[in-house]
Amino acid sequence: MPTTGIINGTLMRLYKDSTAIGYATSCQMNISSAMREILTKDSAAGGWREVKKGQLSGTLSTEALYAGPGDASTNYLFDDLFTDLVAGTALTIKFTTDVVGDNVYTMSAICTSLDLNAGVEENVSYSASFEVTGAIVKTTKA
Amino acid sequence: MKLRLLKEWNGKQPGNTGVFLSEYGEQMIKDGIAELLDEDFVVEDMPKKEDVKQEPIYIPVFVNTEHFQNEEENITKPKNK
After folding, report:
1. Within a domain: residue B30?
2. Do A74 and B22 touch (CB under 8 A)?
C-alpha cells in the first residue's frame, strides 16, 4: 500500500543499485528542462520571447556523515564514492522510500564532486554531487 | 530492510549490517548471504553527537575577613529608616 499523505523525507533515500548511501542526512534530485529560444522575423513582433522544450537533464546530491574503513556497515560510503569519482563510473541510483506502491526514480549517474568537511568538535561530513546520464525513469514499487 | 551479512559480500565482512532495497535484500536472504534484522528498517542509526557539558570552574578569590564581618553587621542590624 502506498504511503498516504505527505511523505516523511527521512524515509526517502538514495540507493546505489540496492545498497543505501549510508549516514545520509539529506538527498536531492533535480530535474530540469533546457529551453530553446524561438526567434524569427515573424515571431519577434511584440517583444515577447518564445521558447520550446529543449534537452532534459538531472542532477543528484546528498549530504551525509563520514565513516571510514573501520565502520561495520555494508552501506555505500564516502570511500566507495571516492573510488567511483576517480574512475568515472556510472552508477545505477534509485531514489525511493522502498514502500510498495510508492515511486521509484531510477537513473544512471556519475559522481562529479565530493566535499569532505571536518570542523572542530563536529561530525565529519561530506556532500556528494552526481550528474545524471540518460533518462530518469519513474516506476512504482511493486 | 536491514540485514546482517553472513558471508563476505562486495568486500564487506560477515557481521556487517546495512540497509538494502527490500527486493534485493530478500534475494540476499534466499541466497544465504545475509540474515534479516528488520524488514521495515529504512534509516540507520546515525552516530550521535555527544553533548559535552562544561563543568563549572571555581576560582578561589581571596577576600579580607573584614568583608564578612561587615556583611554580618548588615544582616543583623536593622536598617535605618
Report:
1. yes
2. no
How many domains does chain A contain in total?
1
pLDDT digits (tens, 9 = 90+) for B12-70: 899 999 999 998 999 999 999 999 998 877 766 555 556 667 788 888 887 777 777 76
Residue A82, classed as helix, strand or coil, is helix
- Residue B58 placed within a domain: no
Residue B44 lies in a domain: no
Mutation target to probe the B interface, by most B beta carbons within 10 A, among A14, A18, A74 is A74
Q: SS3 for A89?
A: coil
* A97/B24 touch (CB, cutoff 8 Å), yes or no: no
Distance CA B1, CA B25 (A): 7
The cell numbers describing A141, all together, are 514499487
Model ipTM value = 0.76
Q: What does the CA dihedral B14, B19, B20, B22 come to, rounded to 10 degrees?
A: 120
Helices (H), chain A: 78-87
CATH of the domain at A78: 2.40.30
